[in-house]
Amino acid sequence: MGRPPCCDKANVKKGPWTAEEDAKLLAYTSTHGTGNWTSVPQRAGREINSISCRLKRCGKSCRLRYTNYLRPNLKHENFTQEEEDLIVTLHAMLGSRWSLIANQLPGRTDNDVKNYWNTKLSKKLRQRGIDPITHRPIADLMHSIGTLAIRPSPASSSNSSSYLPPTSAASPPATLPVFLHDAPYFTAHHHQHQVVTKVDADAPASPVDEKQNHLHQQINWSDFLADDAAAHGAVDAQAPQANALGMYQEGSVAAATGVVGGRAFGDVVVDGASGGDADDGAGDASAFIDAILDCDKEMGVDQLIAEMLADPAYYGGGGGGSSSSEMGWGC
DNA sequence: AAATCGGGCAACCGCGCGCAG
DNA sequence: CCTGCGCGCGGTTGCCCGATT
């Protein structure tokens, strides 16, 4: 039953690769391509040199070494300013989906991008007063947290007693309102984990006072989650795309209300809730997931990114420039 | 000159998904 | 249909090296 083991793990070498091992791996991939990594250790080396023994590496390790270091056309020089800007932009939109981000950076690997982010860019953003996780001003975050502590919502706590948000070091509840404040970000970010979350259907479609709406969303943040199961179908398949496109419209009415790309998030949810299947919570919730997944398939995240990058409005309406300041994350 | 510290990066680990058997 | 491996991914670790004391 099942496939045979990929390698003898007790007889596998770990640690840094030697030049000889690199040569074996390169020679193998140049003649056989990069498929079937599990067979690489057995065949690499043996075919190159009749005296040499096979490559004593796990296929997984071979793949990693090749994709991160040996692959042709890899860039080994420093990241350019344009690449930095693009990484920050894409991270704001996609979160830590490094492979997707790296796809937009020719010659860079996900490991490259991830390391660069962790060692350089996240620090840079902090120095500029930007939270590298939410991509929002740290001052705003502190204000939001303080506001939440002062203004707990009795209504929301009673309504959401059946659901408690997961508490973990990675996502403490106190940070949730910050995500939720920025509906586009929240939806885009949580989409990647396939968490179905209803966007604020009760939020005014076009509030006069953005700050009021901000507060409204903070106070009722748990309402979003409490109604997950009842997040009714008919979800606009364009929503995730639209969310992403609206990322840097912070401060604009569009971002504050969730009206992005000509659609209002509130409208989307309300439309679904008023549909005929409004009571079929579980079924519609799965339909919601299906809609999102279908959207992913149909659109393709790459296409989404391409469209976003092609849209000058994404850069804060600055006329298509891509410098840090124009994008809104710079100092 | 030696010791310590911190940053950068390559590599490993563990998980989820898809698919072969 | 079930089991378990291959693959890809994100998170984490540990080593190396330069800067500082």
Automatic annotation (TrEMBL):
Nucleotide-binding in keyword set: no
Keywords, sorted A to Z: DNA-binding, Nucleus, Repeat, Transcription, Transcription regulation
GO molecular function: transcription cis-regulatory region binding
Major place of residence: nucleus
Keyword Transferase: no
Annotated HTH myb-type domain residues: 9-70, 71-125
Pfam families in the record: Myb_DNA-binding
InterPro entries for the chain: Homeodomain-like_sf, Myb_dom, Myb_TF_plants, SANT/Myb
Subcellular location: Nucleus
Occurrences of domain Myb-like (ranges): 9-70, 71-121
GO cellular component: nucleus
Protein name: Myb-like domain-containing protein
